[in-house]
């Protein structure tokens, strides 16, 4: 049996309530039968996994592994996942490095099949590391089933500090932001950027995002954006713009236009 997050409100009110009840709701979510069953199996079996082929051959383990990085939709793309895992991350020409979505890089890096003679699955704390990510991602997904804007806000709060801390340069950080579908979608809305931005050359996107961030927050430094006060401002802007878009879409004029087009 799974746990459905309690989300009686949408928008910033819903975000505030979710934050106040987060600890209690996360505890209930991770204690649910579905999550516990998956985690118990992962803990018992992951130490026996020595190769990417071993992992991909076990659908239950692979489900948790992909779910920890928001990639559960690729569960049936076994050849693709094998290539990502086996090529690793250390070679510049590896598939994980070539893909714009850096979730695959994180997956390959975490397991280490292509980077080390002994994979990271053999580390004593490996299961804890992956399951912590799995719980966070699955809770976000469960929230998203009710309210996708809340899911994106949760994702941004998790990802933005990670990106800011890990990247060696500001430009590399912005590339990582654009390469993350949840992050780029969230910031596109929060900063008031049009959806057409995503179709531009990636270097142009970086300049547009940085310029807009400076206009809105007074800085384009990702470590500044990841600070709690900046995230709070971004969240207020994000939910305000989501609400405006929803009201605009459901206004009498929008409804009439939809009826005429149907």
UniProtKB/TrEMBL annotation:
Upper lineage: Bacteria, Pseudomonadati, Pseudomonadota, Alphaproteobacteria, Rhodobacterales
Domain of life: Bacteria
Entries under InterPro entries matching the protein: AGR-C-984p-like_sf, DUF1217
The protein, known as: DUF1217 domain-containing protein
Organism of provenance: Paenirhodobacter hankyongi
């Amino acid at each position: 049996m799974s746990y459905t997050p309690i989300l009686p409100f949408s928008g910033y009110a819903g975000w505030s309530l979710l934050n106040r009840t987060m600890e209690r709701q996360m505890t209930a979510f991770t204690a649910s039968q579905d999550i516990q069953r998956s985690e118990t199996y992962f803990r018992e079996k992951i130490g026996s996994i020595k190769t990417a082929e071993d992992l991909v051959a076990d659908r239950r383990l692979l489900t948790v592994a992909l779910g920890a990085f928001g990639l559960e939709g690729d569960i049936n793309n076994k050849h693709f996942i094998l290539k990502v895992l086996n090529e690793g991350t250390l070679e510049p020409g590896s598939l994980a490095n070539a893909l714009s979505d850096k979730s695959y890089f994180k997956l390959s890096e975490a397991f280490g099949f292509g980077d080390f003679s002994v994979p990271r699955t053999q580390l004593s704390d490996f299961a804890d590391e992956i399951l912590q990510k799995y719980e966070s991602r699955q809770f976000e997904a469960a929230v998203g089933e009710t309210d996708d804007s809340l899911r994106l806000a949760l994702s941004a709060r998790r990802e933005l500090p990670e990106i800011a801390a890990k990247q060696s340069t500001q430009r590399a950080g912005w590339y990582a932001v654009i390469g993350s579908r949840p992050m780029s979608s969230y910031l596109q809305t929060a900063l008031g950027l049009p959806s057409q931005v995503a179709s531009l050359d990636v270097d142009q996107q970086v300049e547009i995002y940085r310029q807009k961030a400076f206009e809105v927050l007074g800085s384009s430094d990702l470590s500044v954006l990841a600070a709690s006060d900046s995230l709070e401002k971004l969240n207020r802007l994000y939910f305000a713009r989501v609400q405006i878009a929803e009201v605009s879409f459901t206004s009498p004029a929008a409804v009439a236009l939809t009826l005429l087009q149907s």
